Amino acid sequence: MRIVIIGAVAAGTSAAAKARRNSEDSEIVIYEKDNFISYSGCGMPYYIGGEVESAGELTPRDPAFFKSKYNVDIHTLHEVVSIHPDEKKVSVRNLSTDEMFTDYYDRLVLATGARAVIPPIKGTDFEHVFTLRNINDMNQIKNFIDSHRPQSAAIVGTGFIGLEVCENLQKLGINVTMIEKLPQVTPGLDSDMAVYVEEHLKSKSVSVVTGSSVEEITEKAVILSDNTEVAADVVLLSTGVRPNSELAKSAGIELGVTGAIKVNSKMETSQKDIYACGDCIEQFHVVTGKPVYRPLGSTANKTGRIAGDSITGGRLEFRGVLGTGIFKIFDLTVAQTGLSEREATEQGYEVVVCHNIKPDKPEYMGGKEMVIKGIADKNSGRLLGVQIIGYAGVDKRIDVFATAITYKAQVEDLFHLDLAYAPPFSTTKDPVMYTGMILDNAIQGGRPLITAKELDALMESGEKYNLIDARVAAQYDKGHIDNAQSIPHSKLRDAANEFDQDTIAVTYCNKGVTGNAAQNILLGKGYKKVFNLSGGHKQYKKTHQD
Question: Of 137, 231, 314, 540, which has the most beta carbons under 10 Å away?
Answer without folding.
Answer: 540
